[in-house]
Description:
Blueprint: E1 3-9, E2 11-12, E3 18-22, E4 27-30, E5 44-48, E6 59-61, H1 67-70, H2 73-79, E7 84-87, H3 89-101, E8 108-110, E9 117-118, E10 122-129, E11 136-143, E12 148-153, H4 170-179, E13 182-188, H5 206-213, E14 219-223, H6 229-241, E15 245-249, H7 251-262, E16 272-273, E17 284-288, H8 298-304, E18 317-320, H9 329-341, E19 345-348, H10 362-372, E20 376-380, E21 382-383, H11 384-397, E22 402-403, E23 411-415, E24 418-422, E25 433-436, E26 440-442, H12 444-456, E27 458-463, H13 466-470, E28 477-482, H14 492-505, H15 511-530, E29 535-540
Parallel strand pairs: 2-21, 4-6, 6-7, 7-8, 12-13, 13-20, 14-17, 14-18, 15-16, 15-17, 18-19, 20-22, 27-29
Antiparallel strand pairs: 1-3, 1-23, 3-4, 5-25, 9-10, 10-11, 11-12, 23-24, 25-26, 27-28
The structure holds zinc ion.
Zinc ion binds next to loops.
Amino acid sequence: MNYKFQIIGGAKEIGGNMFLAMGPHENIVIDAGIQFPHDDAFGVNYLIPNFKLLPKITRLIITHGHEDHIGAVAHLKRLFPEIIIYAPRFAKCLAQKKLERASLVATINEYTDGDQIDLPDFFIEPVRVNHSIPDTFGLVLLPKNTDTALFYVSDFKYDEQSNFDPPIDLKKLSNYAKTKTQRILLADSTNILSRTTKTESETSLCESFESIFSENFPRIILTTFSSNIERIKNIADCARKQNRKAYVYGGSMFKYVNCAVESGLLQADDIKFLESKDQLGEPCVVIVSGCQGDFKGTFRRIAAGYDALFKPRVDDCFILSSRSIPGNEKKISMTLNKIAEYGCTIITSQERHVHVSGHAGKEDLKKVYHAFNPTQLIPIHGEHYFLNKHQLFSFDELPSSKAKVQVNFDSFEIKNEELIFSKHVPTDDERPILIHGNDIEIERDAIKQKRKIAENGIVLVNFRSEIVSTKNYALPISIQTLGLPAHLNSYHQHLVKNVINVLKSTHKASNDEIQAEVNSAVKTAINGILGYKPVVVTHIL
Ligand SMILES: [Zn+2]
C-alpha cells in the first residue's frame, strides 16, 4: 500500500501548523493552525494555510489547543463540512468555542492516553507530552499494512518535575524502536538555536514567584500566556502560600481558565475570576492576559491607564512572565514604558526566573531521539534556518538516522517500505491566506492598496459630467484630501487648474479614460509639491 505525506504549514515559518497524511482510502490532516502576521500587517489578524490546495480531507486530528494548531479549525470545517474532528479534552473545549463563534456545529471526538484511533488507513496512538498548554499529545501514525511508525511531535518538552502532566512515555516510544523497522520522526525545532540545552520545568518557577510574592507589594499584576494553565495554577498556589489572593482577569484569561475548569484541569476554587472592583482584596496577585502587548489586550489597557478596574499605582509590581513572540518586541516595550511612567516596579524574565519555554531544548530532543531511534528525521515547527540547524544537530546525535529538511508542500511517500522524497517548486498560490475583520479572507492586492493609502494618503476628485460636455469650466470641482498634510490646502486652486487642463485637452471619450487621466495629472502635481504620489480616486457624477 502507498502512503503520501505533505507538510502544509509550519516548516519554514513559526505557526500555521498542518500536516497532511494521504492513505489509499482517505486524506487526514494533523492540526489546523494560524500564523500571526508581522506588526505592519495593515489589519490582518492572522494567516491560514491555503486549504483550497488540499485534496478532500475527511478527518482532522488536533494535537493541542494553541492557536498555531487549532486557530484555523472553523475555516477548515467550512471548506470540508463533513470533516470528523478528534482532539484532547482541553483543545476540544477551545476548538468547540471557535466553531460556535463561527456558527458551525461539529461533534469533536475526544482522545487521551492509551487510546488508539482506528481509521481506515492508519492506527493513531496518542503520546502525552509536556508543553506550555496542558493536554498536549504527539501522535504516532501507523500506516496499515506497513512496517512503519511515524511520530509527529511538533510541540513538546520533557518535564520530569511537572505536577500537572507526566513526562513523555519514553518506554512507549522505545517499543516502536523494537517493533517497527522504519521510524520517521517529525520533531520540534523551536529551540534548536537556544543556548539553554535543557528546557526547565514549569515547577522551577515557583521559587522565584514565592520570593517575589513575599515582598511588600500590595498588588502584583502578572501577565503570561492565557493558555498556560499549569503556570496559572502554580502562580495561584504560590500566591496562597504567601497569603495573597489570586485572580485571573481579561477576556482571554477567562476563556482559557473556563475551559480548564470545564475540562477538569482546574477546580473552580483554584482561582477566582476578577469581575468587579469591589471583589479585589489586597495583597493580591492578578494574572492578566495580553502578555504580547496587544493594543486591545488587558495588560496594555491597564498599562495605558484606561482599564475600568485597574489604574497603575506607584506601589504596584508588574511581572512579565512570558517571552516576546518575534515581531511583538516593540508593542511589549511600549507597554512596559507606559507602566514605567507610573513609577511601578517591573520584573521581566531577563532579571528573575519568571518564564520557561514550552519547547524542547537539545537535551529534550535527545531523549526522544534515543527512545524512538528514528531511521528518518524531518525537522518541523521552525523557520527555514531552524530546520537546517536541527538537521545538523541530528547528524551528531543520530548517526544512524538520515535527516531531511522538508519545507511546506514538500512531500514524501512510503512505497513498498521505501521512503521517496519529492521537492516542491513553490508557487504564489501556496502562500498563506490573509484573514482580517470578522474572520474574512482579504486578498493580497487589497492589503497592498491599504498600505499605499496608509503611506501616501488619498485624494478624492469629484465633478459633474456637464463640465466635459458643455466645456463650462466654472462648474465646481471638489478635491478632498485624507491623510495628507494641511500644507496641501494652499495648493487647492493649483490642483483644480490641473484638473481643468486635463478636461480641456482630453480627447478621451469614456468616463473611465478621463478619470484615469485626471488621476494621473493630480498624482503628478502632488508629487511635485510633497515628493510622493497619493492614491487618487476621481468620480464623474
Ligand atoms: Zn504549542
